[in-house]
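Consider the tokenized backbone below.
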């Protein structure tokens, strides 16, 4: 565990949250900033990409979009292929909403 923590610190995955008391280590926010200190992804862009993904997900799991994938074989983790197809899009929605929350949290803390 110590070796993993040292590697994470070397890679810059941890940053000190509170420098006045005991060292508390937390994950650095997942936000890349430009040279001017502004985030690369604006809130408007993040929301537009989220809506794009959601529209694609709805098309992929409803009647016209699921037809090419509506089959039983191959089984993926014991699920029929069509069910695994839908589960993958739902899991993708969880990831997309999580990333959107990170972007919105960054913009809330900056006051934008």
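A designed sequence for it:
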């Amino acid at each position: 565990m110590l070796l993993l923590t040292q590697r994470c610190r070397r890679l810059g995955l941890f940053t000190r949250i509170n420098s006045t008391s005991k060292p508390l280590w937390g994950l650095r926010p997942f936000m890349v900033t430009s040279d001017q200190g502004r985030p690369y992804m604006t809130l408007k862009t993040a929301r537009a990409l989220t809506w794009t993904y959601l529209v694609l997900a709805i098309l992929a799991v409803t009647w016209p979009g699921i037809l090419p994938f509506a089959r039983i074989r191959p089984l993926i983790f014991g699920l029929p292929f069509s069910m695994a197809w839908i589960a993958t899009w739902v899991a993708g929605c969880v990831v997309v909403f999580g990333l959107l929350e990170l972007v919105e949290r960054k913009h809330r803390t900056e006051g934008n």
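The CA atoms of residues 19 and 63 lie 55 Å apart.
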